[in-house]
Amino acid sequence: MTLYAGSIAEERRAASLPKRTGLKRIFDRNIHAYLFLLPWLIGFFGLTLGPALVSLYLSFTNYDLLQSPDWVGAANYVRIATSDPKFAAAMQVTFTYVLLSVPLKLAFALLVALAFNRGIKGLTLYRAIFYLPSLLGSSVAIAVLWRQLFASDGLINMLLWRAFGYEGPSWISNPDYSIYTLVILSVWQFGSPMIIFLAGLRQIPQDMYEAAEIDGAGKLRQFLRITLPLLTPVIFFNAVIQTIDAFKAFTPAFIISEGTGGPINSTLFYTLYLYQEAFGFFRMGYASALAWILVIIISLFTAFSFLSAKYWVHYDD
Amino acid sequence: MTDAVTASRPGQMPQRSPLKSVLLHAALIAASFAMLYPILWMLSGSLRPQDELFGSTSLIPSSLDLGGYIRGWTGLQVSFGRFFWNSFVISVLATVGNVMGCSLAAFAFARLRFGGRNFWFALMLGTLMLPYHVVLIPQYILFLELGWVNTPLPLIVPKYLATDAFFIFLMVQFFRGIPRELDEAAVMDGCSPFRIYWKIMLPLSLPVLATAAIFSFIWTWDDFFGPLIYLNDINTYTVQLGLRSFVDSTGSSDWTALFAMSNLSLVPVFLFFLFFQRLLIEGIATTGMKR
């Protein structure tokens, strides 16, 4: 009869009351909790589970919002896998983005966290400055700024001209370079993984370093043998979070390419392609199939990460 | 400076020689400047006369000119004042919804004993991994049927239904840290679960509620994807949509005005950064939030 774990008062009161029949008792025991959960339950069924199932169904249909969905079996998936050059382009762009931006971002985050870790005057101020881009970076304003930085007459080219007399191209509108401007934008936001690294570094017991010092281990050896292994859970966590996030990136590519993913699909992020199919062409069935493929990619990636964690993430103590 | 995040290690300080220390500070100052340079350049760019922006890498305008702000504010057929108001209303209502909806669910998960708790909790964690894109299209169809497209409702109502499971998770972690003796005593005094939630849990959880509220506000304010899909009428635009339209309409002709409006759109987030920096940083450090 306890509503609260280990609640003596409830049990005493229950003992003095007449025994209730089964159903009524179950109802009384659970009603409060389910009242608290009610908003979430409505949201879960109405806005998450229900829609997820509907989109799974829609992915096997053609649907344009006007006529009712037309069952086509696996045709959408077959077309995506075999004869959709834009899907292939989107995959290539997205994987390039993920594989470049995540490691670089984490490397910067770790490097700066290590510089801070050994205690430094003005830490709070430095940390705030390095964190600021993370906080502002996903806004449209910063994407607008980026468009201007890497334009043919933008700040970067002005600096290159000043420093080296080099006349840079328009980085944004050149398909060879445009994706890298987005990678730089992502790496610039290394502040939040840096903060997580800092918190992780503080968990490493000081006496380990002291013991290593006594044993004559140098700084590099201490880093490779103590810091790095003990930090692997944090590295793992940051890598998973940042990768999932990178797969879902949308706003900067949308703003920089004015919604096209161009030039020549060079900034066609996966989510941007999905958006175009759904809300540009109203191919809701096809876009649903794209969404489910994104789920599969992210799940495979996550599963792979967790499997690989056994071999490189240090978990004991 | 006693919290885990900011505490420095006094024991290690003397290990660094003065020369090394100077070099490290020089490197960090240079890096800080490089990090902030684009933002400062945008700020100074917005204050320049319109014809001066290009060809200047300096951060000091030759003369101060607020023309960009004036041209930008009324640069579209609807003034930016409207967009700011829309963004503000949506962000405030969404934040209230997130804090309410998520704290109710979190209280049940953290404190109440009921059949199926582990099952629901696992499902809730599962939704954390689910990309938003999977529910996007059916949700759009639902809100279209309800006649909610071109209203802010699709951006607000789901928050009251605790769809941002991340915040539930955040609050559950915090609630579990509050001593159980407190609510057990209240139960003995005959408090109902709702009173315990309202009178004990919420007042004791202000740090986590504030963290959730601040992130909720910033994320809603910055959100571009949601408004892009649900708001097509320029009168309903948020600041982010207004900026995007402004990019499309001015192209690269009036960067001063575009920078001016971009800067204004960052002001609320920047204010949170100034006043609640520690809360933001601790929130990230303890939960591993991505921003």
Summarize the structure in words.
The complex is a heterodimer of chains A (317) and B (291). Chain A is an all-alpha fold and 317 residues long. Chain A has two domains: 8-58, no CATH class; 83-312, MetI-like fold. Chain A is 72% helix and 1% strand. Chain A has a two-stranded antiparallel sheet with strand order 1-2. Chain A is globular and about 70 Å long. The two termini of chain A are 38 Å apart. The relative contact order of chain A is 0.12. By secondary structure, chain B is mostly helical. Chain B folds into two domains: 17-65, no CATH class; 80-287, MetI-like (MetI-like fold, Orthogonal Bundle), CATH 1.10.3720.10. Chain B is built from 13 helices and no strands. Chain B has helices at residues 18-46, 67-73, 80-111, 117-129, 133-145, 153-160, 165-176, 180-188, 193-204, 206-222, 225-230, 239-250, 255-287. In chain B, α3 runs parallel beside α6 (153-160). The radius of gyration of chain B is 24 Å and the shape is globular. Classes of the chains: A mainly alpha (317), B mainly alpha (291).
Largest sheet of chain A: 2 strands, antiparallel
CATH level 4 superfamily of the largest domain in chain B: MetI-like
Largest sheet of chain B: none
* Total domain units of chain A: 2
CATH class of the largest domain in chain B: Mainly Alpha
Distance separating the two termini of chain B: 23 Å
Which fold name is given in CATH as the topology of the largest domain in chain B? MetI-like fold
Query: What general outline of chain B do the C-alpha atoms trace?
Result: globular
Distance between the termini of chain A: 38 Å
Low-confidence stretches of chain B: 1-14
The CATH topology of the largest domain in chain A is given as: MetI-like fold
What's the helix count of chain B? Answer: 13
Order of helices and strands of chain B: HHHHHHHHHHHHH
- Record field, number of beta strands of chain B: 0
Order of helices and strands of chain A: HHEEHHHHHHHHHHHH
The CATH architecture assignment of the largest domain in chain A turns out to be Orthogonal Bundle
| Subunit arrangement of the protein | heterodimer
The percent range for helix content of chain A is over 70%
What's the CATH class of the largest domain in chain A, please? Mainly Alpha
Approximately how much beta-strand content do the residues of chain B carry?
A: under 5%
